[in-house]
Amino acid sequence: MEIERRDTLSVNDFVREFLEPNVPVLLGPSFTQSWPARADWVVDGGPNFARLQQLYGEEQVQVAECDKVYFSDQKRTDMRFGDFIDQWHRHPERKLYCKDWHFTRSSTEYTAYTPLPQLSDDWINIYYDSGIPEQHDDYRFCYLGGHGTWTPFHEDVYRSYSWSANICGKKRWILVPPGQNHLFTDSVGNWVYNLNQYDKAQFPQLHKLRRIEFIQREGETVFVPSGWWHQVENIGNTISINHNWANEFNLRFLYERLASDMEAVQYALRDVCDMDGFEEHAQLVLRADSGIDYRGFFSFVNYMAQLYLTQVAGECQELGRLDGYFRAQSSVYRALQMVDHVLELLAHDKVASMIKDRVDQLRRRISHAVTRHKQL
Question: Which of 2, 98, 116, 159 fits as disulfide partner to 257, beta carbons 3.0 to 4.6 Å?
């Protein structure tokens, strides 16, 4: 299997060929050519450490030690960005990797990049920017690391999409299409940590795994679809900008992941299922394990649906960051219909009984808007 590479791609073609069918694509360097980060953060083909120190030296970052396993991840430490750069230079053998750094919070006056129009339909970051969620968060990240730093085999948070744009350096990717969990999961439910080094007795079927392997070069952007597990290794000193994101096209995948996680929680708590308040306790455990519960998921869906209903009546300011293709009338009604499909699943989910009235109310509003559209 090979990943498709594109040097030109319209928003409409991206949606039709990659977003809707949920398949990956590698976009050429021309897409990110105008990003300030590609000029400011790079010198002689590598990181411009002086400029990065000037911009972010005092910021706190999370750093993984790639040679130290911590459950299904790597051991992580918080440190000053400037100290991380110093350690990177002094001790390359430690394979320190700055990960999940919310760098856009660090400098509001400096804009390092603008998401590509094809990738602008980003509901997760619109929602978290609204201030509605209890936690102040976002899913915009920067990753920086030397040769051999890497990220273990994983699926993205919430079963979201992700995209990753290389500012400098290269990455070696392994992408695994959905539907193969039984091949990389052992008898007690643990998934393989490293596809390149594993216990064949523990994972006897792993050699059957279908995968896509490729090298991502400087300036190129990878679109990672929902449910595609992956493992990534840096080749040389590498910087990338990444987003996790979701929209109408993968909303169903997010719900299915949430429902699956709840099934696992209920099974783990099966011995106390008769206790008073079990349903609320299960939601609490779900939120702790998965980062979201059913109320949080509905809050996300409801917020985005309200924005699209506002767009039906006029111009919604919060959707202004989306490319015009996604704000066109046909796209807005399509999004509302796809939201309604997920709301229908929620309405029939017994676990969601505490929000059923709100789900039904939102469905009625969407139905009214879609019906009026069809009559015009």
Answer: 159
